[in-house]
Amino acid sequence: MVPTALIGLGAGAASALLMATMASRSPLALLLILLAPLPIMIAAIGWTHWTALFGALAAALALAVVFGEPLWIPIYLVGAGLPGWWLGYLALLARADDDGQVEWYPVGRLVVWCTIIASIIVMIVMWNVRIDEVQFQAALKLALERVAKEYGSSAPDFTKMDVKRVGEMIAGFVPPATAAMITLAYALNLYAAGRTAGLSGRLRRPWPDLSALRFPKLAPAAFAIALTLWFMPGALGMVGGIISGAFIMAYAMLGFAVLHEITRNLGIRPLVLIGAYFVVMAAVWPVFFMTMLGLADSIFDFRKGAAGAQPPAVT
């Protein structure tokens, strides 16, 4: 009991330190905040979900005491503690069939949970953050003028731009992009937690074949509904955009899983994969091609043919 509590305290302390960087408001703080769920996930996967839950509660309380602000408790629990605990708990869920074979919680459902968590976090933030439209447009105009001054004649003619329209476009883009980023962060944290537990010999489930990643059958329908809502005005459109952004990233991950599988027997496979990752990380927008590949696989099941084409295993 005592060692488990100490593990939970250690995980909570590490997670709280990462989340506390929010107070610095530095660019590096964003990356560290996104890593805050990782210690909690490691505690859940490597020990028990009770250990992780204890660590999350301890971290929330510690942040509230150190900063003297009770608001840190819901901020931490919603943003890092409870999502990290929940994903770690789900990762170790299993059931046995009539033949005694153990079926572990599917990785695809874990990724869908990442989209749900990311969407909820961004919705809560957007609901509580109020932006002064006049101040935002003034700040945007000032930023555009500085760019024009710095780059001179090579810069676009910002004087002809409708600052209000540009501001609306930016405001509409930020929530979906944030949801996509948080979805990716939670998925990578879960992957890192599983790898860490595996390297320490504490991973209690077999390491899944990530190239076989598949989503629930209702996922494409949920994505389609979210995309439809995105074109609605007001709050409904914002909600649809947030969920769509999270699903775009989830299906991009599915697209990479498809790419890993269908190139398994290619001699130039490393070049193809490295090139795909490099292009997406360098330009970002090609991620939509991976999203379309993931969606197409949900319909046509490209990997079924690729699996059938693989040579038999050597025994």
Q: What does this entry look like structurally?
A:
With 315 residues, the protein is an all-alpha fold. 74% of the residues lie in helices and 2% in strands. It contains 13 helices and 2 strands; from the N terminus they run H-H-H-H-H-E-E-H-H-H-H-H-H-H-H. A two-stranded antiparallel ribbon has the order 1-2. Strand 1 (94-96) and strand 2 (102-104) form a beta hairpin. Helix 1 crosses helix 4 and helix 9 crosses helix 10. The longest helix has 37 residues, at 163-199.
> Element order, helices and strands?
HHHHHEEHHHHHHHH
The total of beta strands comes to: 2
The helix content is over 70%
Number of helices: 13
pLDDT average, as an integer? 85
**What structural category arises from helix and sheet content?**
mainly alpha
The multimeric state of the shown protein is: single chain
User: Whole-Å distance between the termini?
Assistant: 45 Å
Based on CA atoms alone, the radius of gyration comes out at 22 Å
Please outline the major beta sheet: 2 strands, antiparallel
Strand content: under 5%
User: How would you describe the shape?
Assistant: globular
Instruction: Give the uncertain stretches in residue-range form.
Output: 308-315
Strand order of the largest sheet: 1-2
